């Protein structure tokens, strides 16, 4: 049964046709599959009963003896016909064949008289509607136009073009339209060729540009473009989107008409005809659109499948076409209706059947249809059923335990229970699609299951299946029950003291509260039993001010959320305003404007303080520098006193003694204070000159020759008592003997003139 020939399928389907009035019509239908197969026909969805006018042949085809567009009773043989085939496994429906009567209307455009100068272009046109499309031929002076003449171009839509006119082209023209329904003649039109070929310059001009066309693949498109001008313009074609037109199947008719054979969808686009003056950029353009439609065809056919009971069957049907086709599914020839366990996805290209049972066994068809045509494909679903499987579990009950818990219980099946290895509980929100269902496995000895983590105030559906190693039982009856409603959770509450008589209660909205309609606020003095409230607040309110309070007592504030199921647990806070009163007495309320001014003043003071600090640092540095210089100047004065020749030697010694004595005492005092200046640093900062070193040596030598009994007199002037500068003493007048006054005189007491 699963071979290719077992599938019920069409070998030949009826096709669209145009029927001739009072002539017979045959619609073909041939089917293969497992016999017996029954074939029936429908017209516009209504079953056709055999009659003298229409009956089915032995091979399954439909024969219409005398096709009539309109019958005496007002009915018509025109319409959409389809063939249905049925066997033991199901039913299939063929594609719809559109049958139309052959017709031909009168001409609605006739050729017109024309007078054209020699060398110019003449164009005649006639139009007529008909089914099938009439073939139009042209006659000149009652004789068919010679199409071998290259100057004569006949276009399919009833256009005659004559280029490079000559005197012999003058005559009377008319067109003849022919199809299977009729033959008709247009009115006549006279062409007059006047004068000789003109040499006057004329700008290029497009007489007729391309029309907008909508055709089907494999047809032929002719885009007309006829131009005039002197000199004769050059006609060229391009696509507006810049893509190349190509060369395959492309042909130029006459002097500029574009013909595209064997159309494809890729030929769709906007085509531009350009008439160029030779050797220049002078041009005129005209454009027209070409839309190529493609009938629906399958990219992926649905495949026949076999599935056990209780599982999921999926059929996929992918079709393409231009415009994109619409997909419809049939089940045994009837339009498939979706339900909880039958779903269509991906623009109807995927059919899913959940929890299949024997009633789902059928032939499923995918119909793809657009304005260019339709097609169909079928597949069979076989539901596998093993003998000896358990019957469905019995007595399924569901009881609500809480807002998030339901307990489901059941009884074992009535038949074939020995091979049961377990049960599967199927759970789904009643409002959710079947594909959102989930399962929980239960051991074979357990006949109840506590289902947790459910949502409050929500309806759930449950059913049970018993499983064996060979398959599952049919589903039990479905039971639906709702969880209990849930009161909101405790809100978070914060209390803020505003002033001595007002506090502000604030809370945060949270999804943890669940569904709530609003809040209730209570407050009281702690020594009282009676609350003030409730103050009812909407669910979007998050703060409330409690006023006119007594600052000398403690208050209790309570907040809870509520909904239709009741009040939730409350959050309690205690607050005292006494500290606020005390702070107000000790720290009177601030003058905000004054504080703001003070803040601005403080900022200004900080900036001024920084400037003052920097200035002080600079002054300190300058003070230290001038302090060093002052001490250096003092040392200079001492040297000048010691080296002045006008002072008697005895006085100079006395001065040196005084200086040395004072210096000695000063040094002793500094030693006691630990503030002696670093000798090395002074020498580094103020290096001594060679003359000074010599003077120092002289001083040392002089002191070494002095009497040892007077330490004060022979003590040297230490270098660490003053700074040495590189400054030469003023020159002293030479003595009569030409010796330097700084040199030690023999037979005199000690002297230090350096």
Automatic annotation (TrEMBL):
Residues 663-673 have a biased composition (Basic and acidic residues). It is a single-pass membrane protein. Residues 8-100, 105-192, 204-287, 295-382 form the Ig-like domain. Residues 735-754 have a biased composition (Low complexity). Residues 643-654, 689-704 have a biased composition (Polar residues). Keywords: Disulfide bond, Glycoprotein, Immunoglobulin domain, Membrane, Repeat, Signal, Transmembrane, Transmembrane helix. It comes from the Eukaryota. Its main location: membrane. InterPro entries: FN3_dom, FN3_sf, Ig-like_dom, Ig-like_dom_sf, Ig-like_fold, Ig_I-set, Ig_sub, Ig_sub2. It is found in: Membrane. The keyword Cytoplasm does not apply. The chain crosses the membrane at residues 606-626. Residues 643-754 are annotated as: Disordered. SMART domains: FN3 (SM00060), IG (SM00409), IGc2 (SM00408). GO terms for biological process: cell-cell adhesion. Residues 392-486, 487-583 form the Fibronectin type-III domain. GO terms for cellular component: membrane. Belongs to the immunoglobulin superfamily. DCC family. This is Immunoglobulin superfamily DCC subclass member 3.
């Amino acid at each position: 049964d699963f071979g290719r020939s077992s599938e019920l399928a069409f070998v030949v389907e009826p096709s669209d046709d145009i029927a001739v009035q009072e002539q017979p019509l045959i619609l073909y239908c041939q089917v293969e599959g497992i016999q017996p197969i029954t074939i029936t026909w429908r017209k516009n969805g209504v079953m056709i009963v055999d009659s003298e006018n229409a009956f089915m042949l032995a091979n399954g085809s439909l024969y219409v003896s005398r096709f009539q567009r309109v019958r005496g009773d007002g009915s018509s043989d025109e319409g959409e016909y389809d063939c249905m085939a049925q066997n033991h496994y199901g039913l299939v429906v063929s594609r719809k064949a559109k049958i139309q009567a052959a017709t031909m209307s009168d001409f609605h455009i006739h050729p017109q008289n024309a007078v054209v100068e020699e060398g110019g272009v003449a164009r005649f046109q006639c139009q007529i509607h008909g089914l099938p499309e009439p073939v139009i031929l042209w006659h000149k002076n009652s004789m068919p136009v010679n199409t071998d003449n290259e100057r004569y171009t006949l276009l399919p839509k009833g256009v005659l073009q004559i280029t490079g006119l000559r005197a012999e082209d003058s005559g009377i023209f008319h067109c003849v339209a022919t199809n299977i329904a009729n033959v008709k003649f247009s009115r006549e039109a006279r062409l007059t060729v006047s004068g000789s070929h003109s040499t006057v310059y004329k700008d290029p001009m497009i007489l007729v540009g391309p029309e907008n066309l909508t055709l089907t693949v494999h047809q032929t498109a002719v885009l007309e473009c006829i131009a005039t001008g002197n000199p004769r313009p050059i006609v060229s074609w391009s696509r507006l989107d810049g893509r190349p037109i190509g060369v395959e199947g492309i042909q130029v008719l006459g002097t500029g008409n574009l013909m595209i054979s064997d159309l494809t969808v890729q030929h769709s686009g906007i085509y531009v005809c350009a008439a160029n003056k030779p050797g220049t950029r002078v041009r005129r353009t005209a454009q027209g659109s070409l839309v190529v439609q493609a009938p629906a065809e399958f990219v992926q056919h649905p495949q026949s499948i076999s599935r056990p009971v209780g599982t999921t069957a999926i059929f996929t049907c992918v079709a393409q076409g231009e415009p994109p086709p619409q997909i419809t599914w049939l089940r045994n020839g009837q339009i498939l209706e979706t339900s909880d366990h039958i779903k269509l996805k991906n623009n109807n290209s995927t059919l899913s059947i959940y929890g299949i049972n024997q009633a789902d066994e059928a032939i499923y068809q995918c119909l793809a249809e657009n304005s260019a045509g339709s097609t169909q494909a079928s597949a069979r679903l076989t539901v596998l059923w093993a003998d000896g499987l358990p019957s469905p579990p019995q007595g399924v009950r569901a009881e609500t335990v809480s807002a998030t818990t339901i307990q489901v219980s059941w009884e074992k099946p009535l038949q074939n229970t020995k091979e049961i290895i377990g049960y599967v509980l199927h759970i789904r929100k009643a409002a959710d699609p079947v594909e959102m269902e989930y399962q929980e496995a239960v051991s074979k000895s357990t006949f109840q299951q506590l289902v947790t983590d459910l949502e409050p105030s929500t309806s759930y559906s449950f059913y049970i299946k018993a499983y064996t190693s060979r398959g599952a039982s049919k589903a039990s009856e479905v039971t639906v029950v709702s969880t209990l409603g849930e009161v909101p959770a405790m809100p978070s509450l914060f209390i803020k003291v505003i002033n001595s008589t007002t506090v502000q209660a604030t809370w945060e909205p949270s999804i943890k509260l669940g569904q709530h309609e609003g809040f209730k606020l209570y407050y009281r003095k702690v020594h009282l039993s009676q609350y003030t409230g409730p103050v009812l607040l909407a669910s979007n309110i998050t703060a409330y001010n409690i006023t006119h309070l007594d600052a000398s007592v403690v208050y209790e504030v309570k907040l809870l959320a509520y909904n239709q199921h009741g009040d939730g647990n409350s959050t309690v806070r205690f607050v005292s305003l006494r500290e606020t009163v005390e702070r107000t007495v000790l720290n009177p309320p601030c003058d905000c404007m004054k504080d703001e001014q003070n803040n601005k003043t403080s900022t200004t003071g900080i900036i001024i303080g920084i400037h003052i600090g920097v200035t002080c640092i600079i002054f300190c540095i300058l003070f230290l520098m001038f302090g060093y210089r002052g001490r250096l100047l003092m040392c200079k004065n001492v040297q000048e006193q010691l080296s002045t020749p006008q002072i008697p030697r005895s006085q100079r010694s006395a001065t040196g003694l005084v200086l040395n004595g004072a210096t000695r005492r000063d040094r002793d005092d500094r030693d006691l204070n630990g503030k002696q200046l670093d000798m090395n640093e002074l020498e580094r900062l103020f290096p001594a000159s060679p003359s000074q070193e010599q003077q120092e040596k002289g001083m040392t030598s002089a002191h070494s020759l002095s009497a040892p009994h007077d330490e004060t007199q022979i003590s040297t002037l230490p270098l660490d008592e003053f700074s040495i500068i590189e400054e030469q003493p003023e020159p002293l007048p030479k003595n009569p003997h030409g010796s330097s006054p700084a040199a030690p005189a023999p037979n005199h007491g000690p002297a230090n003139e350096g």
